[in-house]
Amino acid sequence: LMEAVAVEQDDAFAAGIEFARAEGPIPAPESTHAVAAAMAYARTSASDGEVVVIGLSGNGVLDLAAYSAYV
User: Fold this and answer.
1) Contact 27/60 with Cβ under 8 angstroms?
2) Most CB atoms within 10 A, among 13, 56, 62, 68?
């Protein structure tokens, strides 16, 4: 089901950038933590054919300065 997972800020922004490059939308920084955790789970623990669902709380268009500071 669900569990809380801690994600470092740099890992979250890296996941947000990877998500944006693969899917198009730029996730809001708050959502990048969920993206990072879901990507880590999918790469290490997900079963074949398992579907991982996340919710994005907004887009990161207004947060491009934060992304710029990360890159």
Assistant:
1) yes
2) 13
